[in-house]
Design brief:
With about 240 residues, the chain is mostly helical. The protein has a domain at about 35-100 and about 155-235. It contains eight helices and no strands.
Length: about 240
Amino acid sequence: MSILIGPKQPHMTWRQRLSFRRDLGNRLNVLRAGVMGANDGIISTAGIVMGVAGAHMSSTALLLAGVSAMISGALSMGGGEYMSVSAQRDLQDSICQKEQEQLENDKEASFQGMYKHYLDKGYAAENAAAMAHSIVDNNDIATILAEKFQIKLNKLLNPWLAAAADFVAFIIGALLPLLCITLIPDPYKVSVTMAAVVVCLFGTGYTSARLSNVPARKGALRNMIVGLLTMVIGLIIGSLIG
């Protein structure tokens, strides 16, 4: 028998509705990470190429500095993401193993854990006991992990995928200032690059703020200011050295 968890979407069972919410949350997290990766690529590469441009170096030097910044930054971001997600994956594996062993060797403890979980979520004792019994009696480890820890067995964290996504997002973001500073002729390359970067940072800041449920305009403005300051500081340092 399907047990409904609220008046909305009455055609969805409690398991289907919870699964839908978690899937949506996962997609939003991936999108948010991609947006921030591209944002980092824009800002860091723009700051470096502005420094080289401020030193009045050749177009070849500009291109070399930009490409080096793009590749090294993308590798750094991808490597950092791999290490971070690997640690999270190790924790997921540990939880999965512990819960599987408990389900196989101590069903009463598994039942009590699920029963208390549903009571804490506000279910009536009768419904909580029925759901817990159904899950434990069917050795439904997937539901235990999804309910208690938001872990989906068929969607465990993939460190390589996360690293690749961060790497690609950074490259895409870095291409904007790199192409502008190398393809636009003097004396417009610095001003046009700065304008293009600021406009794109408004977009990434706005999108990131919306995905994080914070004031979008304020987030976009902060992002633009950070990017503009990065470029101005880079330009000043380059001018002083050059």
